[in-house]
Every structure is written in structure tokens, then in C-alpha cells.
Amino acid sequence: MYYFTYDPWIGKLLYLEDFYVMEPYRGLGIGSEILKRLSQIAIKTNCSCMHFLVVIWNKPSIEYYVRRGALDLSTEEGWHLFRFDKENLLRMASGK
């Protein structure tokens, strides 16, 4: 699952929301083919890059992406992911 978004510093990008290959099918080139197709879509639609998240404990996936040229922005650029939950959104929206 993916969608397009825009960053004022880097322009249009493809955001990869979910990408999972079930264990019995790993090592068959499925992941590489999915990344190839997503890369083609990103290039065809004039995206400057593709962003995605990987949980910190998923070392095999991190290594998989890094081997293919992905940059870990948490170490390369020092970015951290933050979230406001619904309770805090309601609190801020009410001006409290």
C-alpha cells in the first residue's frame, strides 16, 4: 500500500505505507520485484524519493533496505517520528 505526498524541502514523494512478504515466500525475489515496481511508479510520477518506516527491532528488514541503498534518516539526518493521539488532538483543538 502506498500513496503520494509532498514535502516542501524535497517535493513530491511516494510513501510506502505497508510492505510485507510472508515467511514462506521470502528469498524468491518478490520483495525485489515489488520495490522495482514501486521505484518505476515513483520515477514515472516525478517523485524525488520514497519514504517508509521500519520498526527499530526489525533488523532483517533494515538490513534488506540498506543493502538496496535506503538511508536510515534517523541516523543520517537525525529525524524522529512523533504522533499526537486523539486525546491530545482534542485537547489542543479546544485550546487547553
UniProtKB/TrEMBL annotation:
MF terms in GO: diamine N-acetyltransferase activity; spermidine binding
Q: Which UniProt keywords apply?
A: Acyltransferase, Transferase
What CDD domains does the entry give? NAT_SF
Provide the GO biological process annotations: putrescine catabolic process; spermidine acetylation
Kinase among the record's keywords? no
Q: Where does the N-acetyltransferase domain start and stop, copy by copy?
A: 1-91
Report the sequence similarity comment from the record: Belongs to the acetyltransferase family.
Q: What is this protein called?
A: N-acetyltransferase domain-containing protein
